[in-house]
Amino acid sequence: MHASPVAANLATPADPLVASDHALPLAVLLQRSPARWQLLLAWLLSLAACLWLGVVQLYGGWYGYSVHFGELDFVISIYPPLTIATLWVLWFGYAWGASLAYLSTLLVAYLSGLPPGWALLFACSNPLGLLVMSLVYRHVKVRYVPSSLPAMLFFVTICFISAVSSATGSFIWSYSNKLSAMGAFAVWQGWWSGNFLQTVLTCGPLLLLGTPAVLRWREQRWPQRAATAPAQRWVGLVAVFALCGVLGFLWLSFWLADRSVAAQVGDSAQAWQQRAMLYRDSAMAVYWVLSVLMLALVFLGYRFFRQRTLQLQQAAQSVAFERDWALQRQQEAEHAHQALQTLNRELAVRMAEVEQLQQQLQEQARRDPLTGLYNRRYLHERLPVELQHASHLGQSLCLVLIDLDHFKAVNDQYGHAMGDAVLKALATLFAGRLRAADFAVRYGGEEFCLVLPGCDIVGAAACVAELQQAYAGCRVAGDSNALQGLHFSAGIASYPAHGSDEEALLREADSALYQAKAAGRNCVRYRG
Which residues lie in coiled coils (predicted)? Predict the structure, then answer.
C-alpha cells in the first residue's frame, strides 16, 4: 500500500536535540582538493597551540588552584589544550581532537619527568575522556551545540562523565610521583573538576559562536550524510555507562577522602577539625555535582520521555489515518466494484441485444423479404453442410428446382400484387407440407429450390406431386379478383446418384426442370 499524502504530513518533525553532524574521516587528506590543505594547516596550528599551552600550563603552575565557594573548598587544575582538542572532536571527529590531546599530554608528561612507559600511558587519559564524549554524541545523536536548555543540560552531563573518565590519569601521575593519599585526592579532584568546569565554561560559548561557521565551511567542501535515528541499544548503553561513571565518581570521592583522613596524624582538636573539613569538602563537592547531574538527568529524562511519547502519538495518528485511509480506499473499491458489476450487467444486456440484432440481421440476410423463405445465399451456405452430413450418415439427399408456370402472364394480366400473392401462397404451402428437416429457398424470381435430406428420388417425386396437387387447389385472392388452378414444373436431382457436390446437383436439377418445361409444364422430371 502506498503512503498517503496526508501520512507524509504526520512524519516526525526534526528534533532540535538530534544532531545531523558526522565525523570527518582522515581520508579527506588524501583527496585532491584545496580544502584538505586548509584543514591540515588548521590542525597543525592547533597542534602548535596545544603544545605551547601545555608547556605554559606546566611551567606556569596552572594546576592545584584552591577555590572557595561559600564554605566549600576544592581544588581545580586548568589544562588549555583540552579546550582545543574538545572542539576538534566535536567539529571534525574523534581522531582529529584525540591526536591533539595525546601529543600535548605526552609532551607535558615527558617534560614533567615521567618515565617513557608511564608517559605513553598517561597521555591516553584525556583522549579517554574525549572518547566517551565522542561515542555518546555519535550514537545517541544529541546536538552538541548547547543552544537550548535540553542540549545544554546534556552537554553538562557528558562533560562531567568525560571529566571523570579522563581523571583516571591522575592515579598514574600520583603513582609515578609517589604522592600521599592527600596529594592523590587533591590531584584527582583538581583534574576532574578543572576538566569539567573548563569544558563547560570555554567549549560551551565557543560551540555556540563558532559551530555555524565551521559547519558551513565543512558543508561546502564535504557535504553531510543524512542523519539516522539513534539506536535504542546505544541509548541504553550510554545510560548504563553514565550510571557507572556517577557510581565510580562517588566511590572514588569517598575512598580518596577516607584515605586522606586516615593519613592525617595527631589527635589534637585542630587535626580532627581538618579531618572534618576534609570530609565536609568532599561531601559538599559530591552533593553539588550530584545535584547538577540529577537536575540534568531528570530534565533530559523528561525531554526524552516527551519525545518518545510524541513519537508514539504520531505513530498512533499515522496508524489511525492509514486505517481510515485504507477503509476509505476499501469503500471506494467496493463502490467501484459495484459500479463495475452494474456496468458489466448493462454491458451483458447490450451485448445480448447486439447478438440478437446480429442474429436478426443474419436471419434477414438469409431470408427473402417477400415470401419469408431462405434466399439463394443461405442455400449456398447450408447445402454443402447437408451434403457432408448425408455422406457421413450414408443417406441420400434430393434437391428440387421448381418454376411457376405462366407466372409472367399472371403479372401482365393481374398485376404484380397478384404475382406477389401467388409467390406467398406457394411459400405458405411449403411451410405446411415439408418436414422439419427440409427447407425451401426462393432461388430467384418465380423459381424455388427444395432440399430434402434423407429422401430418395421416389420419395421426392411423391412429395412434389403432393405439393402440385395442393397448389392447384389453392385459391389466391387479389384486390378485385382471385386465381385458382395454379401449377408449377419441377426437376429433381438425387445425391449421390446424380452428383456429389452442390454444383453438380443444381446442374442436374436444372436440366430436369428444363425437360419438364419442354414436356408441357405442370409435371416433374428426373433422371432415372
Answer: 340-367
